[in-house]
Write a structure and sequence with these properties.
mainly alpha, 2 domains
Length: 128
């Protein structure tokens, strides 16, 4: 099992096939054509699985967003992306808490929204 895992990690197809033949199939296909056909079959299966994976990821907009924001083939980059996302969520939660404290009642909220509407209206006059 250790040699199979090592061969897999090193992308050593011949060793994987040899171990398969030794423990399961009995004889390793020797003909070059058989090996090429086997490689072609593996590549087709890989493409099919990648397509299914991509379809599954992008069928849901939320899942697609999370995937694009967090995923990377490199585990250290994934960890960094996750740390950044956690920081952003905490920062946003703190901002919301500060906002809730700064708006003690509906009257204050209405004044803030009126001021914001005025600022946006003035800005829109200068936008082309």
């Amino acid at each position: 099992m250790v040699s199979l895992l090592k061969a897999r990690d090193e992308n050593d197809l011949m060793t994987v096939l040899g171990l398969h033949a030794e423990h399961v199939a009995g004889e390793l296909p020797q003909a070059e054509q058989e090996l090429e056909a086997l490689c072609t079959l593996f590549e087709a299966q890989l493409e099919e699985h990648e397509g299914q994976s991509e379809s599954w990821i992008y069928e849901d907009p939320l899942r697609a967003t999370v995937y694009e924001k967090l995923y990377d083939a490199d585990p250290s980059v994934r960890d960094r992306n996750m740390a950044i996302a956690k920081f952003e969520v905490r920062d946003q939660a703190e901002g919301m808490a500060d906002l809730a404290v700064s708006i003690p009642n509906l009257k204050v909220l209405k004044n803030i929204l009126r001021d914001r509407e005025t600022i946006l209206a003035e800005q829109s006059r200068y936008d082309w």
